[in-house]
Design a protein that fits this description.
153 residues; mainly alpha; 2 domains
């Protein structure tokens, strides 16, 4: 039985298209390799470490004393209890700021450009995350909402 001409023509068209796609993919891979070589050369000329192409220099963290995480944990719990057991993160932070007024240490007020907030607020958010992992706060709360679990209320 003979293969119909339209089907044979479609097979030829698809094979040609596949070959073009493969050629284009190979050309792009070669360009990517060449760009990597160019970037490596530029980094070497600039005196940057070529072995870490995407590494950004990390700002050194302040060595100034900061409020211990335990104090932040207690502040989160106290703020949530005062706010009825559930509140927006911004409201919890505001309540904590009121509680900690005059008690924050010099390192707490260091501004963190990466998070656009003072260090103590970022540290409090990390402590809140740890509290969800430990079970002290409810996991799965809506985004931006901090909630005590049943035991903490």
């Amino acid at each position: 039985m003979a293969v119909p001409d339209p089907l044979r023509a479609e097979k030829t068209r698809l094979a040609a298209s596949l070959a073009l796609h493969t050629d284009a993919k190979q050309a792009l891979a070669q360009l990517a390799d060449e760009f990597q070589d160019i970037l490596k050369d530029l980094r070497e000329r600039l005196g940057q470490d070529a072995s870490a192409p995407n590494a950004k220099p990390r700002a050194k963290r302040s060595k100034l004393p900061k409020t211990p995480q335990k104090v932040l944990r207690e502040g989160i719990l106290a703020a949530l209890r005062k706010l009825g057991g559930s509140a927006r993160s911004s409201d919890v932070i505001t309540e904590m700021a009121n509680q900690l007024k005059g008690l924050l240490l010099p390192g707490d007020d260091v501004w963190r450009d990466a998070t656009n907030e003072p260090a103590w607020q970022n540290n409090a958010k990390w402590e809140r995350f740890q509290m969800t992992q430990d079970g002290a706060l409810r996991r799965g709360s809506p985004r931006g909402i901090w909630e005590l679990n049943e035991e903490g209320q």
